[in-house]
Amino acid sequence: YWRDWSSDVCSSDLMILKLDKLRQQSIANPRVRALARALGSQSQMATWDTQGRIRVNDELLAYARIEGEVKLVGALQYFELWSPALWTAAVRCSDVDIADVAQQIGL
Fold first, then answer.
1. Tens digits of per-residue pLDDT, 45-101?
2. pLDDT of residue 3
3. N or C: which terminal CB in the chain sees fewer CB atoms within 10 Å?
4. Please, which residues have CB within 8 angstroms of residue 59's CB and are 6 or more apart in sequence?
5. Number of neighbouring beta carbons within 10 Å of residue 35
6. Do strands 78-82 and 7-10 pair parallel, antiparallel, or not at all (unpaired)?
């Protein structure tokens, strides 16, 4: 098992879809409550500045262990922010067989 140390960046539309799905779940489920707390406490609404940059808050940078350089990894509807060293380690240590996953979902 590899711990994913990235921070995800998605559009507000995608986040609204995720939150709508979460709201449909039972709050009696402690795992759902934990997810709601995590999303609520670890999310940031960011806007692009005039030069196309966003400011990621220090807590999210610390969570992703990003210091100085950052690796942007596209993931279809969103992108992830990674420490370059952790990205390299994640790719090297991944036990996911990409071809197998693609075949399982019909790609």
1. 888 899 988 888 888 888 889 998 999 998 888 888 999 999 988 888 777 777 887
2. 53
3. N
4. 42
5. 14
6. antiparallel
